[in-house]
Amino acid sequence: MQPTPLPWFIVLLTSVPQAFIIIRIGFQLYNLDMGYSRTILLSLISGVLAILARELPLPFGVHTIILIVSSTLLTAIVTGTNPWHCFIAILTGALILGVLEGVLLPIYINITEVTSDRLALKPWLNILYFLPSGIIMAVFYLLAKKRNYVIFDLSLDRD
């Protein structure tokens, strides 16, 4: 089955913010430094890659793997950070978002009575479904940043 193409507004309002928060949370949790302007640039590129990856006729989940790997490589190139450190940080951010969405999506589907198949037909619902998890992730990031919460300091290992 050919995947439904991502409309530009879904990329702008969900894919780009998701990439931004994934990178920011991952880099915060591992004490890796990156400015906001670079994060925005990488998020915009990731949004374009999301459109391209979505066009590929691949099984469910492979698109996510492609986006994680490409984001890792781009981040390593742009920041000069060790690619393994970028991978660990981005994978952690993606896993946190994935777990959060995995918990919230069944609740959304129950409340709206919209099946996951119909989400492709009503793309604006993706924005509505992203808002609570995006807000929770943003609050989590802001708290982690404010309290300087780090689960493992990768900035000490520059190799």
Count of distinct strands: 0
- Enumerate the spans where pLDDT stays under 50 for 5 or more consecutive residues: none
- CA radius of gyration: 16 Å
Oligomer: single chain
Helix segment tally? 6
Share of helix, binned: over 70%
Explain the overall architecture.
It is a single chain. With 159 residues, the protein is mainly alpha-helical. It has one domain (8-151). The chain is built from six helices and no strands. It has helices at 8-29, 36-55, 62-79, 83-112, 116-121, 124-146.
Features:
globular; mainly alpha; 159 residues
Secondary structure layout plus pairing:
Blueprint lengths: L7 H22 L6 H20 L6 H18 L3 H30 L3 H6 L2 H23 L13
Give a quick summary of the entry:
With 159 residues, this protein is mainly alpha-helical. The protein has helices at 8-29, 36-55, 62-79, 83-112, 116-121, 124-146.
